Every structure is written in C-alpha cells, then in structure tokens.
C-alpha cells in the first residue's frame, strides 16, 4: 500500500477486526473484513457498520449562506427546512458534474439565527468542492470552512439499525423512531469515554434504512478518538440487543448501492457528462428559476443523446465498468458504468449510459464481455427497493 495514502481515524479499529485495505480516493480504507458477500447479505437482513470518515465535510455559515448555495449547487437550499437534508450536485461551468453531495441544514431557523449548512462531498472530491464553494462565496457574507480532517463518520445500515441505536442511546428512543428519512438531529451517545455528541442523520448509501453518525471535534486526533468510541459503543449496543452487526467494507458498500440504483462518482457521474445523461435529473429541478453555476450550459432532459439505464443479465456472467454495450447487431451504443452479480436478486445487474433510442424498458441488448456478446435487457432503476 502506498505510503501516500491517508488512514482513516478509525484505522486501528479496522486492523483489529482483520480488515483488508484498498486505495479509495487517496485513502487507505477497509475493502472487506472477511466475505464481502456475507457483509452484503448482513445489511439486507440485519445490520452492517461502515467507516465513512474519508468523506468530506464543509460547513457554510452566514446571513447569505442559503442564497450562496442556491447559486453554487443545482438544488434550492435557501428553503431547506432546519433538521432536513437534500441531495444535490456541484456542477462545472460546462454543466458537467464536479461532485454529488448531501447538504444538511444545521441552524434551527429561529428569528435572528445565522443560517448554517453542512455540505458532505465524496472523498476524492472534497478538496475540489471546498475550493469551488469558497470561490462561489466570494463577495457574499458567508464563511466556508473545511472540517473534513476534524470529522469522523460512522454509518449503521440495515433493517435493524434503529433497534441498535435505540439500545445505544436509550434516552433518545423516541427521537430516533420519529426521525424521518433525510432528516437529522444532534444527540449524546454514551461511550466508554463519556458522552459523545453526534449528528445523527437518517441517510445512507445502501438502499436500506439506516443512520450516519457524524462526530466533529477540534482536531483530527480528537475526532478519531471519539469516532472509535462511537464505533465501539454501537458494536456493544448491538451485542446487548442481541442483534448481529457486521463490519462492512467498500466492496459490499458498492454492491449494495448498485442494487439500489445509486450513482457512484467516477462511474455514473463525472466531469465529462451532464446530469440528464447520468440518471440524476431529479437533482436539477426544472422549477429552479434562480441562476446557478452551469445552468446556462445544461442540455434539457429530452436533448441529451445518451441516458443512464438499468440492465439485467440473462446469463451468469457480469458486466463491468467500461464494457461496451451493443445493439443486437453488434453496433456499439454505449458503455457500462457499473456492473456486478446481484447477491440479493441472483442475477447480473449493471447501469449503463446508452443511446436514448435503445433506452425503452424491455429492449434486448448485448454487452461485450471480453469479445463475446452477452444478453442483457433494459429494466427500471432501482433494481432493489426495500419493503417499507
């Protein structure tokens, strides 16, 4: 492993758990702890715990914070209610995707309160997003602060995630039960090192119910210590509740998000393609009248030549990133952005960017699997949707 990779603040926890590591966005992160298939199935059936401390955290504060984010991002943030979160895109001037991210409204909205937002970009793009936001805040009464190094992030995902956190925070059972999807609340979590303040968000990247726990401190060392304390407290709570909680790495996180039809930056999203060609049209509301970076360059939803679709394999061989997609006569019409066998569904699945003329549900296509055309058909996204 390269000496230039950054370790997570929870690195020692992962080493003790027997993790194998991989380079992800310049970070030395757990790939898996044992079987990635077992980790995937654990999240679908019970619960898994993930270290997401490689993600970025950028705080935007000031009287004009909401208006600045309206300009800086594709979605409307000035009207986001306190305690809520929203998925959005940070676009380039050319209308392509610099990053996708989640924004949390942090102030309470009371009269006289200073607007405050927490922007969470992807690991490899955290520095670029911070730079872009700082530049787009120029001339406005706004402060942009990169808190990535001082924040640890632990996710608990799966149908029994709420039960585990209720055991971990018995004084906040009701608040956890009432917390809506894409909402957040700050709570105290008892640990062996004392109570730790955590931002508890009902968000995730697996297609299951779950929570993400942000631990902010004054230094990377403090954040790492508190993050490890939170991880260990959640693991102990699961044991006390009699719930199996499985440590999960990036391999299962990727297969889970693929089943849920969630885009990955560098695969479905990149700075070469616009949102309507990448399956994230919902993040560019047509009703947004105010100007924002990239707006004038955006193609309309019906104007892009290629679109993102789901593909279901007829055989057992899986398509992979960058494999060519062909029509039934062998003409190349696009390429796979992500692909893998689906542990939950039992057949290969893929997302692909293809010519829109072939995007209708049920269209039969081929994927070039190393010189041999394998049959796939266009299906709706997501591939998997949990029972509510």
Automatic annotation (TrEMBL):
Annotated catalysed reactions: N(6)-[(R)-S(8)-aminomethyldihydrolipoyl]-L-lysyl-[protein] + (6S)-5,6,7,8-tetrahydrofolate = N(6)-[(R)-dihydrolipoyl]-L-lysyl-[protein] + (6R)-5,10-methylene-5,6,7,8-tetrahydrofolate + NH4(+)
EC main group: transferase
* Keywords assigned: Aminotransferase, Transferase
Q: Which NCBIfam families match?
A: gcvT (TIGR00528), PRK00389.1 (NF001567)
Give the taxonomic lineage as stored in the record.
Answer: Bacteria, Bacillati, Actinomycetota, Actinomycetes, Micrococcales
Describe its partners and assembly state: The glycine cleavage system is composed of four proteins: P, T, L and H.
Give one Pfam hit by family name.
GCV_T
HAMAP family in the record: GcvT
Q: Which PANTHER family match?
A: AMINOMETHYLTRANSFERASE, AMINOMETHYLTRANSFERASE, MITOCHONDRIAL
Q: Which family does it belong to?
A: Belongs to the GcvT family.
Q: Which residues form the Aminomethyltransferase C-terminal domain?
A: 308-384
Q: List its EC numbers.
A: 2.1.2.10
The name this protein carries in UniProt is Aminomethyltransferase
Query: What molecular function terms (GO) are annotated for this protein?
Result: aminomethyltransferase activity
Residue ranges annotated for the GCVT N-terminal domain, each copy included: 10-287
SUPFAM superfamilies per the record? Aminomethyltransferase beta-barrel domain, Folate-binding domain
What role is this protein assigned?
The glycine cleavage system catalyzes the degradation of glycine.
